[in-house]
Amino acid sequence: MEKAREFLDTLQQYTKMFSGISKAIQAEYRLADKDISVLDYEDHEDFQYSYWVKILEMVHLSSIAGILRTLDWLNGISLGIERENYLVFASSFRGALESAGDIWYSLNKVPYTLAQNYTNISLALNKQTTGKTYISTDLEELLIHFNWARVLDRNEMSPDSHMAKSNRYYIEALEKTGGANLLNLYAELCQITHPAHYTVQGLFQQTDTNLPCPHKGYQFLS
Q1: Per-residue DSSP letters for 46-87?
Q2: Are 192 and 202 in contact (CB under 8 A)?
Q3: How far apart are CA 175 and CA 20, in angstroms?
Q4: Are 74 and 14 in contact (CB under 8 A)?
Q5: d(CA 171, CA 189)
Q6: Cα–Cα distance between 169 and 136 in angstroms, integer?
Q7: Are the C-beta atoms of 95 and 192 separated by less than 8 Å?
Q8: CA quadruple 94, 96, 102, 105: dihedral positive or negative?
Q9: Tens of pLDDT, residues 76-123
Q10: How does pLDDT run across 28-61, given as a tens digit for each residue?
């Protein structure tokens, strides 16, 4: 029971923090509909400027989207607890875990990459690159993956970055950061969310253990 209270307290803290961030969001994004190519620009410094403005807008958009999505899942977990609805709790918890794995896989390298290339990015934004080209293909691919990865139709022709990986892959990547037993937790949550043994057994409790075998007394939980 004490661990349950600690979990709920932590959940409420993060929900409050993310809610505060979401209320402060008033940004409007106008991203280019096509990839930015150096061939589209006569001035090399204009290309560098446009490239990094687009990248930084995508970074900000992706970060905020990750926060808002996480907030929705946390609200779902809270609702499941408040309504004492085990299925809502488990499905929201599972969704939050999948979302966290996706966010970690796609965005965990963003801060380091921006910090490592701070000087070059600053030169590009100030149009002072003096003819040198600074791009980050890896960062581009990860941002594209976060925003556009999905289950592709059989005949759909799309780049590899548009192809979603399995949820297990994302969660396994998250577990490698030190998250203990996340795959086992995920497997258990799937057992509850999908029609399986746990979704049936969670609806009633055993009431009479003195009945002759193989009979048992059960009562459905209201």
Answers
A1: HHHHHHHHHHHHHHHHHHHHHHHHHHHHHHHHHHHHHTT-HH
A2: yes
A3: 28
A4: yes
A5: 13
A6: 24
A7: no
A8: negative
A9: 999 998 888 888 999 999 999 999 999 999 999 999 999 999 999 999
A10: 656 555 555 555 666 778 888 888 988 998 998 8
- Extents of the domains making up the chain: 2-220
Q: Tokens at residue 131, please? A: 């003819």
Residue 175 CB neighbour total at 10 angstroms: 19
pTM of the model: 0.80
Q: Count of residues for the chain?
A: 222
Cβ atoms of residues 69 and 99 within 8 Å: yes
User: Does residue 206 carry a pLDDT above 70?
Assistant: no
Torsion of CA 126, 128, 132, 137, to 10 degrees: -10
pLDDT at 105: 94
